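Moderator note: this is an archived Q&A kept for reference. The question asked for a predicted structure of one protein chain; the sequence and the answer are reproduced below.
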Amino acid sequence: MAESAGAAESAAGTATVGIVGAGILGLAVARRIIETRPDVKVTVLEKEDRVAAHQTGHNSGVAHAGLYYAPGSLKATLCRRGAGLLREYCADRELPYEECGKVVVARNTREIAALQEIERRATANGVPGLRRLSGSGLREIEPHAAGVAALHSPTTAIVDFTAVARAFADDVRKGGGEIRLGFEVVRLRPAGPAGDRVRVISRTGELVVDRLVVCAGLQSDRVARLAGDSPAPAIIPFRGEYLRLVPSRTDLVRGLIYPVPDPRYPFLGVHFTRRVDGGVDVGPNAVLALAREGYRRRDVRPADVWETLRWPGFRRLARAHWRTGARELYGSAVRRAFVAEARAFVPELTVDDVVPAPAGVRAQAVDADGSLVDDFRIGRRGPVTTIRNAPSPAATSSLAIAEHIVDQL
C-alpha cells in the first residue's frame, strides 16, 4: 500500500523528498526545499521524540565567523555564507544572536606562527573586523586573560541552536511539511517500477520517496551504508566534557577565549564559551565515547564499542595519537588537571570556580587510513544524498549547507 500510494502521488506530479534526521541540518534542508519548491512533499524522519535531540541540542552555541578553515573549502565557503543567513534569521524571528566576539590566544612566542596562519586564513575567508592584539591589547578585551598575542574576531557570536532548530521545525510544518517523530530508519530498499525511488522502513512504518537526504549526525555512516554507500568514513564518537563557571565567577570571561588549535586535530582544545543565558562553559576535552550517544561516562553500548574497535581507521588513529588520548582521559578523570589546562588562559581560575556541565558528543568521521575528516563530506548514491561528515561549524552553516544540498537535488 505504501509504495502504490507513493507511485500515485508521483504520477499525479507531486515529487516527494524524505529527510533522515531532525537536527538543525536536516530541518534546514527540509525548510529550504519547501521554500524553493512548494510543490514538493517533504517528510522529516526522526528516531527520537523531539527535534534537536543530539548534536544540535548539545551544542556549545557558538556561531563561528570562519577563522580556521582552509580558504576555498566547503567549511570556509558555507560558514561565511551561513553565518550571515543565521544572523538575519535570528533577527527576523527575534531569537538571541549576540556578537560577543572571540579572542584566539597565543600563550607563548612558539604559537605566534600558528596564530599568523589563522589570521591569513580568516582574511582570505573574508572574516570582518579582524584585529591582531598584543598581550596588553588582549587584556583590554578580556581583562582576566593571559597571552603574548591574540587575534580578535568581533563578529563571532553566541546563539541558542536548539531554539533555532525548533523555529526551523515550525517553518517546515507551516509550509506543509511533515515531521515524523519516533521513526527510526532500519532499512532502505529500492522502490518504484524502475527502482529509482527509495522505500524507507522503520519498526513503526514505512515511506516511499523520490529522493532521500541523510542528515543523521552520529548515525550518518550507518544510514549511508543502508543505502549501499561505502563504509568510509566511519563515525567515531568523541565525548566533549565541560565545566561551568559558578555564577559568582562569570565575570572572569566577557566573550569567547580560544587557544591556538593544534593543526593535527579538528578539535579546538579547551576554551571559554559564554552562553546566551549568561553562563560560561569551560571545555571541552575529547575522550572516546563508549556509545554513539554516550553523553555520560556510564553510557556504554557494547555494540558501539565493538564497531569502533573493528574500524581500521580507529586503530591507526589510536596508535598514532595514544599519548594525546591518555592526556585527555587524565583530564577527564582529574578535574584539577582539566582546570590547570584552562588556567593557562585565565590564571585566576581555581577548582572551586567550576561545576560539572552537560557534555556533548562529536560525530567525528575517520577514514580507513586513520585520518580525521575535517571538511564537510557530502555524497550521492542514486536517489540518496548522504551528509557523511558535518562537524562544527555545521550548525552555523546550516542554512548555507541546505542551499548547497538542495541545489544538487
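Archived answer notes: Residues 1-11 have pLDDT under 50 and may be disordered.
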